[in-house]
Amino acid sequence: MITKMLYIDPGTGSMLFSIIIGITGVLVFAARALLIRFKFIMSGGKGKTDDKDMFPICIFSEGKRYWSVFRPVCDEFEKRQKDIWYLTASPDDPALNAGYKYVHAVFIGEGNKAISRMNLIKAKVVLSTTPSLDVFQWKRSKTASWYVHIPHAASDITLYKMFGLDFYDAILLSGQYQIDQIRRLEETRGIPPKDLKLAGIPYMDKMRERLEASSPKEGKSEPVILLAPSWGTNGILTVYGAEFIEQLIKTGHKIIIRPHPQSFISEKPLMDELMNKFPESSKLSWNKDPDNFNVLSGADILISDFSGVLFDFSLVFNKPLIYTDPVFDRSEYDCSWDSKELWTYDILPHIGKRLSKENISDIRNLIKECLEGSYADELSKGRDLAREQTWCNQGHGAEKVSDYLLAKYDEIVKQESKQESKTKKRLSRSNRI
Q1: How crowded is residue 406: how many other Cβ atoms within 10 Å of its Cβ?
Q2: Three-class SS state of 184
Q3: What is the largest distance, in Å, between two alpha-carbon atoms of the chain?
């Protein structure tokens, strides 16, 4: 009975945590404001606030899986010898041991502890991939001036959960269609327009740079097929399961299966079942490498579903793909507010072949069609179209992101300096009176 009375369901627990964090933030900020005001008045308007714990520009990373997104930006700041603080929620984030001089990587705790730190952060500019700012537990700090979002995939910006980006000040995008999507959302919801800039996709730039620097692959006698599904109820392994893997094996080609890392956590029984039924052999392997570069580079064609890896593989490595139509409930996502079709739906037929239950038994011919002949040439032109629409400033994404962050920091400092000057003059006049 006592145990039942003490139990708090996850939803209530999350709500209570948010309330506690909110109250704590208000109290801390109020105390800071009173102290600063007291010092300022006692000095006759000449006192200065103590900004020793202020971060001029900082990055907030939920965890090490986003290091590929932020690394090009960190490299650019290091090259320019400009300071930036990288605040991570992963104790083993590669940034912590990257050996930077100007990029100051700090582990700020995992989970709720990291969010608590961010809710009270003092910063001029904050860059993050994390959505739902000011929607759930992550709140805007009253001592942070400007929040900037950068996506971690080259696709629709409306595929976040509802209101995912509403409370950011700025979004760094890579295609005009993304700007159009955000503007339609803002108009529909009646919210102030955000600062939207076409910056590019730094992590894809870095991936292509890495590809160009790598050694050419030796000729292969047969194509290598990469099956890299997402996880969840709409993932290929969940929808098609063992039947699809059997059809792939029948092609006689070399097959690499790379499930989403979350599948080994949330879908462990399914993974165990499939890996036991289809053990590794000379024709089939299961890939779990943390870095997907080698497996993407070595494959000739990708089979996937509604995953960002579709565009990494197609646009960076310039290779064809086979995709499945996703079926998901849009009501939870920002795209449910948009009357226009998703860009991803429009572009996929130009860069790949659609897989369905009707043509699954003909997978060998689908693969051949994508790799050979006139249709392969058509897909190549489709990839050029996709790059044009969703990958602006190719090769210069990190530069554009860094330019924006530094310019915004300078702008904020100038505005604050002007405001401080006006306040001093007003107090000076008040004291004379």
Answers
A1: 17
A2: helix
A3: 92
For residues 55 and 123, the answer to whether their CB atoms sit within 8 Å is: yes
DSSP element (H, E) containing 227? strand 224-227
Neighbours of 190 (CB within 10 A): 6
| Measured distance CA(328)–CA(230) in Å, rounded | 13
Note the Cα 97 to chain centre separation in Å: 22
Beta strands of 270-358 (E only): which ranges?
A: 284-286, 301-304, 321-324, 352-355
Residue 372 tokens read as 């050979």
What is the rounded distance in angstroms from the CA atom of residue 157 to the CA atom of residue 170?
13
Instruction: Give the angle subtended at the CA of 390 by the CAs of 68 and 309, to the nearest 5°.
Output: 45
- What is the DSSP code (8-state) at residue 303? E
- Taking each helix axis from N to C end, the angle separating 373-390 and 176-189, rounded to the nearest 10 degrees, works out to 50
Give 278's DSSP letter: S
Q: What is the pTM of this model?
A: 0.83
How many other CB atoms sit within 10 Å of the CB of residue 110? 14
- Specify the CATH number for 206-390; select among 3.40.50.720, 3.20.20.70, 3.90.1150.10, 3.40.50.12580: 3.40.50.12580
Report helix, strand or coil for 317. Answer: coil
Cβ-based burial of 28 (10 A; exposed 0-12, middle 13-18, buried ≥19): middle
Tell me the per-residue pLDDT of 110-138, one tens digit each, with 9 for 90 and over: 999 999 999 999 999 999 999 999 999 99
Chain segment 174-229, per-residue pLDDT in tens? 999 999 999 999 999 999 999 999 999 999 999 999 999 987 766 667 899 999 99
Which contiguous run of DSSP H or E holds residue 249? helix 241-250
Superfamily of the domain at 51-205+395-408: Glycogen Phosphorylase B; (3.40.50.2000)
User: How many residues are present in the chain?
Assistant: 433
* Structural domain boundaries in the chain: 51-205+395-408, 206-390
Q: What SS3 state is found at 417?
A: helix
